[in-house]
Amino acid sequence: MEQENKIVVFQEKGIRRVWHNEEWYYSVLDVIEILSETSNATDYFKKMRQRDDQLKSYVGTNCPQIEMEGEKGKKRKTIAANNEALFRIIQSIPSPKAEPFKLWLAKLGKDRLLEIEDPERAALRAREYYQVLGYSEEWIERRMQSIAIRTQLTDEWKNRGVNEGLEYAILTGEISKATFGLIPMEYKKFKGLKNENLRDHMTGLELIFTMLGEESTRIEAIKTDALGFVENRDAAQKGGRSAGKALKAYEEDSGEKVVTNENFKQQIKEAKKRQHLPDNRDKE
Q1: Contact (CB, 8 A) for 230 and 170
Q2: Are the beta carbons of 280 and 144 closer than 8 angstroms?
Q3: Positive/negative CA dihedral, 19, 24, 26, 31
């Protein structure tokens, strides 16, 4: 079994996957096709859910529809699951192939634990992932910096009694609103996004001000010794306002807007254009 950025291979058959919400999500239908050896994975999965109400409810809550590339290269939304959700689905598949698959997933989980113990592994994987997608090295460098700053901030929140999940999301929204005038949901809508990761669709400049807002928030939390959600919300608002002031100053001086509706496809298109214009650069 080998591991790639878009497809992982189990017993010589490919399983599509995408990086979503900071973890890998796999195509449920690809997994079912392999384990059940059915010629119609969609119908097989439908019958599985009809037989098992708990599975139907679990899938509805834990298995989002995520865009993945099909055989003909076209991207379509398909049911996807992370490691935990896949284990639950596999339990409902009466197949002798299920056990080796569980061991295979456990191996991938072990790799993830090694990345947690050695952050350089995770950083290298993320960098390779963005390179495969076609991002420029300049953008990748900023994205890696933004990941590091975000991690430092969430570690600070954790140490200061902020609960993961909803409270993290609310504080992130406070920073974004004060910095850009938009909460993440509004920002994604402005860029024409749905389930995609917002930061993967930011320009390098947007990432810079995102980092500034989060780093300012971390410093404010330390300075005021903020404890718990309420005090850290105050720090998030102050940190975001500091970044927002810097953003407005930049826009006034440059005459350019920082927040843009550009998304990943547009960024790659522009990057490719720049790569094919050496003559213009030489004339500048």
Answers
A1: no
A2: no
A3: positive
Chain centroid to CA 267: how far? Answer: 17
In a domain, 1, yes or no: no
CB atoms within 10 A of CB 153: 25
Burial class (CB in 10 A: 0-12, 13-18, 19+), 37: exposed
Strongest mean pLDDT among 80-89, 245-254, 269-278: 245-254
Does 124 fall in a domain?
Answer: yes
Average pLDDT score over the chain: 82
Q: Alpha-carbon distance 31 to 95, whole Å? A: 12
Q: Answer yes or no: is 2 within a domain.
A: no
Cβ burial of 52 (10 Å; 0-12, 13-18, 19+) is middle
DSSP H helices, 24-182, are 28-36, 41-51, 53-62, 83-90, 98-117, 119-133, 137-159, 166-180
56 within a domain of the structure (yes/no)? yes
- 64-106 tens-digit pLDDT: 999 888 766 778 899 999 878 888 888 788 776 666 766 666 6
Q: Give the separation between CA 46 and CA 25, rounded to whole angstroms.
A: 20
Which domain range does residue 151 map to? 119-283
Are 124 and 96 within one domain?
A: no
Neighbours of 33 (CB within 10 A): 19
Check whether residue 227 and residue 89 sit in a common domain: no
Q: How many domains does the chain have?
A: 2
pTM of the shown model: 0.58
Residue 280 has pLDDT above 50, yes or no: no
